[in-house]
Design goal:
Length: about 70
């Protein structure tokens, strides 16, 4: 993981995004040597996988019946 201070992150934000897009690695933004945020590549969620909360819903009837 790469560490970048806030000033460099603000100054070179576009270049950081290009690095994330190209390499797929995360970048940690630090203030005074302490990590405060992570820039991570976007990973779209699966549209096939059911949401965990929706799995708990049970329907005891056929909603398509008149």
């Amino acid at each position: 993981m790469n560490n970048v201070n806030i000033h460099d992150a603000k100054t070179h934000f576009s270049k950081l995004l290009e690095r994330i897009e190209h390499d797929g690695q995360s970048i940690t933004i630090c203030r005074n040597g302490k990590a405060i945020a992570d820039l991570i590549p976007h990973r779209p969620s699966s549209r096939i996988k059911t949401h965990p909360t929706l799995k708990k819903i049970k329907i005891d009837y056929d909603p398509t019946e008149p």
